[in-house]
Amino acid sequence: MKSITIKGSERENVGKSSTKSLRDAGMVPCVVYGGDKPVHFSAEEKSFKNLVYTPNAHTVVLDLGAKKINAILQDIQVHPISDKILHIDFFELNEKKEITMEVPVKVVGTSKGVLGGGVLRLNQRKLKVKALPANLPDFVEADITELEMGNKLYVTKLVSDKYKLMHPDNTVVAQVRISRAAMKAAQEAAKAAKAPAKGKKK
């Protein structure tokens, strides 16, 4: 999985007044869990742009000067009106321990059902995967080539040796639904088939 480096500085004062001062200065208070003890730090709000405002999944290298920590974003708090980032929680990665995180679904192929007039619906835009940090994928590939009209692609078709998908077997990732135009045409064809031939006596 691709990684983003974020530069920050450790902080000792974690009180409300210190936190408010950081935010007023355009900084985001953060904390990293998962290690021997939580690590509190701050970083410029703009440095999180490529991590937060993207559909892609990334791991993070937190460069705190004296130390570098490999982590993933665990939780983020934003202001309900301004959408300003208020606080971010990270979780430190251990190369020997599996981690669970959401990654995007990447659709590949052209569905037979879509070519026949159907409409593709992507039910899951992201999936939870569990893997060692080195095996975390950038995305889960969903091949829809063989989907006929009315078919569904279940999560069981997306298995991998490198990671485990954390969803029930009946989870539908994508499906091809009959379009309104195709449905109307089928209904009209059915009516025409049932209607008596013109001029034919009853």
TrEMBL record:
GO function terms (MF aspect): 5S rRNA binding; structural constituent of ribosome
Protein's GO biological process: translation
Keyword list, A-Z: Ribonucleoprotein, Ribosomal protein, RNA-binding, rRNA-binding
Pfam families: Ribosomal_L25p, Ribosomal_TL5_C
InterPro entries for this protein: Rbsml_bL25/Gln-tRNA_synth_N, Ribosomal_bL25/Gln-tRNA_synth, Ribosomal_bL25_b-dom, Ribosomal_bL25_C, Ribosomal_bL25_long, Ribosomal_L25_dom, Ribosomal_uL5_bac-type
Gene Ontology CC terms, in alphabetical order: cytosolic large ribosomal subunit
Gene3D superfamilies (UniProt xref): Ribosomal protein L25, beta domain (2.170.120.20), Ribosomal Protein L25, Chain P (2.40.240.10)
Subunit structure, as described in the record: Part of the 50S ribosomal subunit; part of the 5S rRNA/L5/L18/L25 subcomplex. Contacts the 5S rRNA. Binds to the 5S rRNA independently of L5 and L18.
Family to which the UniProt record says this protein belongs: Belongs to the bacterial ribosomal protein bL25 family. CTC subfamily.
Function: This is one of the proteins that binds to the 5S RNA in the ribosome where it forms part of the central protuberance.
Name of the protein in its database record: Large ribosomal subunit protein bL25
Organism field: Flavobacterium agri
Lineage: Bacteria, Pseudomonadati, Bacteroidota, Flavobacteriia, Flavobacteriales
